[in-house]
Write a structure and sequence with these properties.
By secondary structure, the chain is α+β, with helices and mostly antiparallel strands. It has a domain of about 60 residues. Helix content is about 35%, strand content about 15%. It is built from 2 helices and 3 strands; from the N terminus they run αβββα.
């Protein structure tokens, strides 16, 4: 059995959609700000997503390093809206 020991290979491959870009986060931010959410940077360089209705704010990293962090943030924002009866999907 051959084991590949080439440490010059990177994972995930460059240019793959397994990582999140600034553009993805900016697009999500614009989408939720258009719905009335307030997004602000905290003193620890995280983002506080405050909904326009009475609910607990959602906190996230300002630079999520992996694609799951972005998907989890989007899911949490959707669940927050759904719990308040603001989202139908």
């Amino acid at each position: 059995m051959h084991v590949d020991t080439d440490r010059t290979k990177t994972w995930p491959p460059r240019g793959s959609r397994l990582s999140m870009s600034k553009k993805d986060l900016q697009q999500l931010r614009r989408e939720y700000e258009s719905r009335g959410w307030t997004v602000e940077r905290t003193s620890n360089d995280h983002l506080r997503w405050t909904p326009p209705f009475k609910a607990t704010p959602v906190f996230s990293a300002s630079t999520p390093s992996e694609y799951r962090a972005f998907k989890n943030l989007r899911s949490t924002l959707r669940r927050t809206e759904r719990a308040a009866g603001r989202r139908t999907d």
